Amino acid sequence: MNQAADERARQVVKHMMQNDQFSNWLGIEVLDIKEGWSRIKMTVREEMINGFGIVHGGIAFSLADSAFAFACNNRNVLSVALDTSINFLKPVHVGDVLTAEAKELHNGRSTGLYHITISNQHAHEVAIFKGTCFRTHQSLI
What we know:
It is a single chain. By secondary structure, this protein is of the alpha+beta class. The protein has a single domain, classed as Hotdog Thioesterase (Thiol Ester Dehydrase, Chain A, Roll). The chain has three helices and six strands, in the order H-H-E-E-H-E-E-E-E. It has a six-stranded antiparallel sheet. A hairpin with a 3-residue loop joins strand 4 (97-107) and strand 5. The protein is globular and about 45 Å long.
């Protein structure tokens, strides 16, 4: 990885965040971006809990999905989710600060494979997400 590629990756994600209403609603903050990699965080809010008093699983999934999107698109090649899965390891509660880190496992010509870990403010892994993307070969910016 080189500095020019990482700078381009940061510019692509900045552009994505400007147009990503859902990630903005979640309160996602981009912590760091490198080519094929991302780290983001958010704080869980009251309106994100389910009927059991814990955070709805869709919130953790959505955070991981955003980290996935930022990692697989940041080479400026429009990529869309082809397959995703998540494993929930621990409950998430209101006030928790979640960090998602997306790592590229495979960068192919037409697909990419990513592993995303979600941890809380105590560095406990609360979920693991796997995503496969399809590369459209269109530019984002």
